[in-house]
Known about the structure:
200 residues; alpha+beta; CATH 2.40.240.10; RNA Polymerase Alpha Subunit, Chain A, domain 2; 2 domains; 4-stranded mixed sheet; 13 strands; elongated
Amino acid sequence: xxTISITGSVRENLGKTGAKEARNNDQVPCVMYGGGKQxxxxxxxxxFDKIIYTADVYNVIxxxxxxxxxxLLKDAQFHPVTDKPVHADFLxxxxxxxxxxxxxxxxxxxxxxxxxxxKLRTPMRKLKVKGELSNMPENIEIDITTLRIxxxxxxxxxxxxxxxxxxxxxxxxxxxxxxxxxxxxDEEEEEAAAEAExxx
Length: 200
């Protein structure tokens, strides 16, 4: 998993007036919870750009008044007009304790079915997984090179590699559907016929 460092300062005034004052100074009121900790702090607004306007998931190293905490951004609220962050929640990551995150899916290779005119469908963009931080990759990489027309890859067919997938095993991640003008080679026709017979 990617790592990024952010510096913050403990909030002294936890009321609405203090939060408003922080926002007026381009600071975002935040709270970190978990592991028996609950720390209220502020972070410079610009520090959020790399972690909220991206599909990537980061291990956020929070440096709050000189003390570092490993954390995940769990939620962020935005201003309805300016779309700037106005509040954020972080989860403290304890060593050796599993964490649940939604990781982006990265497709690799060129599908044989798409080369023959099939249409690639990607109904899922992220996968919810559970595991220790040390086993957490930047994304879930899926090779679609051998994927032919009529075939799909489901959650249940993915290797675990120290991760537990929390989405239903039957969920289709990527599939190649037939399209006008698509051409199936002999092997694809045999596989499609076998799949159709099995489904019947």
